Write the structure tokens for this entry.
Amino acid sequence: MFQFGSRSGLTPSFRSPPRAAPGGEEVTTEEAGVRPPHGMAPRVTVQIKDGAAVAQGAPVACLRNAPDVCFVSPMPGRVARSVLLRGHRLSEIVVFRDPGGDVVTHATDDAETEPGLRRLMQRAGFWPWIRRRPFGGMPDADERPAAIFVMATDTRPFAPDPREALAGREEAFLRGLRALSMLTAGTVFVCQLPGSRFVDGSDAKGLRVVHSGSRHPQGASGLRIHALCPAGLDSPVWDIHAEDVASLGALIETGRLPMTRLVAVEGSALRESRLVRAQVGADLRELTHRIVRPGPHALLSGSPLDGHFAHWLAPRDRQVTVLPRETPRAAPHWLVAALTRSATPKPVIPSAALDQAFGDMMPAAAFVRALGAGDDETAMKMGVLSLLEDDVALADYVLGGDAHLAELLRGLLDRIRTEFAV
Amino acid sequence: MTRGLWTRETVVIMLLAAYLQLALFWLWFGGIEEVQRFALAALILAIWQLVFLLARAQPVSLSAVITALAIAMLAPEGLGPVRLILGISFGAVMGELVFGGWGRNVVNPATVALSFLGFGFPGFAWPEILLPVAWAAIPAAAIGIATGVLPAGIIVSATLGASGAVALGVLPASALPAAGVVLVLLVADPVTSATTMLGRWLNGLLYLALVILFATGWHDAAPVQFAVAAALLTSLAAPVLDELALALWYAQRRRRHGRS
């Protein structure tokens, strides 16, 4: 009844200056921050003392309950400081670059078996690049997904083209896909734009190629998962970016995990945009140095729709958005504030714009009402377990930021998680 | 941070732009009485909005203009100000404001007000919808559908169904102008109509079925009268139609994925 048409979705327009150069040059920032995926603060054991030298790919911290899952240094350098929250929860570990340092080579002998591959991915720091649903964050060390989605398309505004990121790495990408198919008994879905020729269905067992249009949210992993293989409490689904799959292929072949990725630096507070290959956890200030307009600005890791204010490029992000910083508005008159404040959030009026913000593939108005009312059961029936904040970001934007769908969705997911004690 | 525009008030402004054609034609062919009625309805609604703003901190909405237009166009004639004030107040308060304002209401306040006036004071004549005003409903619907604020499914299904019904001779052509204007003004209200695609098609067809039923079975009823009654019953049934569409969708998903 609800499904993606080739024209469903929207193309929200944001301002950004043109690119000065074709881009793609490699940039390694002088500082980098090792962070857990957004919204997570896992309990970790820090492996390296402040001030000690660390090689690229060497673990700087590992999970307390699963010591194999490591966070690794994205470049050779020296650990500047480790910031832990209460209860040894990881906030960030800052690394200073040391140009002459080493790169760790992992043993790849038993990458042909599933346990060996898992251990390799976890030890090499690949695990935080995987996102699981329901609830988001990286998967448990021994979790077996019901399906894996490889996103070779990205429809968010200003997103770098995955085809460009994969150019010349097709072989590594195929190797990565074959490895992924070992981790699941289900299907590995590859979502790509029509006309892309990365893979066809015959390349590996259990592989399925899905074509999607170019409007957002057709390339949003959550809505694809919702349509093709919904995540459930006991059937988690993973999603990985295609570029990371190519890096996995390289890791299996060489024992070294490539740490750079294609990153688009865009936004209306820039003088010119850039496209660079930067390392994971790159320093956003250095990436935007000398190209920002004068005046206060805000740095976001992620797209203008779903980005977060950040200092470091988040583990899965491929976009940096620079926006002029909003000057705080003058407080409204006390009478106006008293009269309007209690009636928020304002109601959402069903319109074609709202339907298209969900790609016309969900009963959008009913879903937004269920979110607003905190109706967990209806939302679960509608497939809320397949969705995360990124997937409702467009609807949030379209509705003028009044509806706070991302917060409502997070609250609802947290409630479901507590209730079902996962 | 940049933001999209489809807030509640943007939808109201788009609806007003669509209904402007209807309002202009109606005023052009009407007289000073029509203007007075519209001004009275708008004034009463504004006062009630102010009362709820002060008492319950409910933000005011321009949607009151649309409600005032619908009531002024379709209310029985010669009621006098007291009855009109009573009916409009009942419709605005019980139909919309007690639920939390426009966007949270279950039935269209104009439909409630008109039904109240019709059932409460049965002796008064219902207005006749002139043909040029009815024609103006077509551009209104077109603008509403193009901007996405009027549900296309309802209007298209009711129109297709009506042309079939007129061709078969089930629906008298004299009922069409009133039914058309009520369809655009009251039934296709984005808040109180069905929100799923299938629900919208059923919503349009249910309205048509009720209009046919009343046109053939309700003796001495004016076209506007039975169209408004059909609109009231349709908007009460809209949530059921949505539930029906959702139940089908859940079943389809369960069959396809083994879970919802």
Remarks:
- Chain A has twelve helices and 18 strands.
